[in-house]
Design a protein that fits this description.
Distance between the termini: 28 Å
Order of helices and strands: EEEHEEEHHHHEHEHEEH
Low-confidence stretches: 253-262
Mean pLDDT: 92
Strand order of the largest sheet: 6-7-8-3-9-10
Structural class: alpha/beta
Number of strands: 10
Largest sheet: 6 strands, mixed
Shape: globular
Number of helices: 8
Length: about 260
């Protein structure tokens, strides 16, 4: 078991008590698995990812990576963000090399590693471009290459294609599966898109409305590439949407009630 999350709880203090974002969340992830996590808006998906990344501390519960507790950020986990999070003053190569510089990897080794992953994500020839010269899909390729350059055990992806148009998003999904098949990385992928989860994942984890818990887990054993218009794809999509819609319906009516957005 590469990643083990047991009885995770995360709460945030407020004036009259606390807001519980995640409650009693448990999940085991095997090496090489591609896991997608879905849930109503505000259910704690991004908070979950930030805790695994070591950017947030859990209130209680255990998170183990290869048997070792996660106590903070580490190069054994790579993070890819929705908003690209690139340094605008650095070139593609320098963005990819950023984590390697922090680790004080020698320049020649940095160049070798950055070139390997720039080539892998299909950006050969763009090494000296800056982010403002790239399309959205190309920026996200840089983000993926940067995360992979540190050679992490676990790749954490927080709605990485959410800001892209539909055509580019579909293309990037195919590219991500190609990269995943070549690197054999374990991936934990947060998304609002049921179609995206059905297309990408080995396993789809559906969370409840806040506080987020595991409501249902769906195994997806079909061969890739998957046909989005197949009967089995449509049936799985229908089941997952039904689970998500039930969560939205039972959510308490408050100003921050989740939208019907998956």
């Amino acid at each position: 078991m590469m990643l083990s999350i047991q009885n995770l709880r995360k709460s945030f203090p407020k004036k009259d008590g606390e807001t519980v974002a995640i409650e009693n969340f448990s999940l085991d992830v095997d090496e090489g698995e591609f896991i997608c996590v879905l849930g109503p808006s505000g259910c704690g998906k991004t908070t979950l990812l930030r805790i695994i990344a070591g950017l947030e501390d859990p209130t209680s519960g255990d998170i183990l990576l290869n048997g070792t507790p996660i106590l903070g950020p580490g190069s054994d986990r790579g993070m890819v963000f929705q908003d690209f999070a690139l340094f605008p003053w650095r070139t593609v190569r320098k963005n990819v090399e950023f984590g390697l510089e922090i680790k004080r990897v020698p320049p020649e080794k940095r160049k070798e590693l950055s070139q390997r992953y720039i080539d892998l994500v299909g950006l050969k020839g763009f090494e000296n471009y800056h982010p403002n010269q790239l399309s959205g899909g190309m920026k996200q390729r840089v983000g993926i290459a940067r995360a992979l350059a540190n050679e992490p055990m676990l790749l954490l992806m927080d709605e990485p294609f959410g800001a892209l148009d539909a055509q580019t998003r579909n293309l990037m999904q195919k590219e991500l599966l190609r990269i995943w098949s070549e690197t054999k990385k374990t991936v934990l992928f947060i998304t609002h898109s049921v179609d995206e989860a059905c297309y990408l994942a080995d396993k789809i984890v559906v969370m409840t409305t806040r506080p987020g818990m595991v409501k249902e887990t769906f195994e997806v054993s079909w061969e890739r590439p998957r046909d989005r218009v197949s009967v089995e794809f449509a049936n799985l999509r229908k089941k997952i949407l039904a689970e998500l819609e039930r969560e939205v319906v039972k959510a308490p009516v408050t100003d921050d009630r989740p939208e019907l957005k998956f």
